[in-house]
Write a structure and sequence with these properties.
11 helices; 0% strand; elongated; mainly alpha; single chain; 262 residues
């Protein structure tokens, strides 16, 4: 399991390798991420500034508590709010950036597929069906994200233990959702639905989490998401091909193909 987890981390590393061989394509992929990142950064700053007031509003039951319990509870709530805000930013950042920069990321996906070989056919006559499916999958992933956010906020209200548990759980849940989102190109091109995605990636859960958690942590680094986003799309293509190949028993779809860098 540990080896598989770090194998997933290595998959992201293969995607990062594209920066060395196709810098122009990767820079184009970084532009949408930069635009979305600036907007989100402003939102996180505003949330952090107003988090004490929001925490007091969210914990009216603590109004009559004696000190220091009232302060401890509200500080915990403020930290949890910012933590959940960051989690939601990471989740929605990927979906929105993929939507804004779809042509660039589709080109990165297609380049990776062609480099590895046995690429799926170009979509023909089903553009709007793919768009509708992508929107539906995005909404379902967003619903999962909101549910996870609520659970993590409640966990974060627990003093000390909550502040330790929330970042760990956020990385695990966040990594899983990121893997679901980023592998959309490869699965959709093969007409596989979100439930197929969950099933196939779930069969290689340790590897999927290794890729997803590494991506999630890299997205938390200042400007990390900007430069990691194109690489994450390439790495997710490798991850998806491996999951599909393992499910159908076809070596043509596994990660054993050529390196994405060519």
């Amino acid at each position: 399991m540990i080896r598989e987890f770090f194998g997933g981390v290595a998959v992201l590393g293969r995607g990062l390798g594209l920066w060395a061989t196709r810098p122009k394509l990767m820079l184009l992929g970084a532009l949408p991420a930069l635009i979305v990142a600036v907007v989100y950064l402003a939102g996180i700053v505003v949330l952090a500034v107003f988090s004490p007031d929001l925490a007091a509003w969210a914990t009216p039951f603590a109004d009559g508590w004696v000190e220091p319990w009232r302060t401890i509870t509200r500080v915990s709530a403020a930290i949890a709010l910012v933590g959940v805000g960051v989690l939601l930013v990471v989740f929605t950042f990927t979906a929105i950036t993929l939507a804004v920069g779809d042509p660039f990321y589709e080109q990165i996906w297609r380049t990776t597929e062609l480099t590895l070989g046995d690429a799926p056919e170009e979509p023909s006559g089903r553009f709007w069906r793919l768009v509708a499916r992508g929107i539906g999958a995005g909404l379902r992933i967003l619903a999962i994200t909101v549910l996870i956010g609520v659970v993590l906020f409640v966990v974060g209200l627990v003093p000390v233990a909550g502040q330790i548990a929330v970042p760990v759980l956020a990385a695990l849940f966040g990594g899983w959702v990121l893997a679901l989102e980023l592998t959309g190109f490869a699965f959709d091109a093969r007409e596989l639905r979100l439930r197929d995605r969950r099933r196939m990636l779930g069969a290689r859960r340790a590897r999927t989490l290794g890729f997803g958690v590494a991506t999630y942590l890299l997205f938390l680094v200042p400007l990390g998401a900007v430069f990691a986003m194109p690489a994450a799309v390439a790495g997710a293509t490798v991850l998806a091909r491996g999951a599909i190949g393992a499910a159908v028993g076809s070596p043509m779809h596994t990660e054993a193909g050529r390196h994405p860098e060519g």
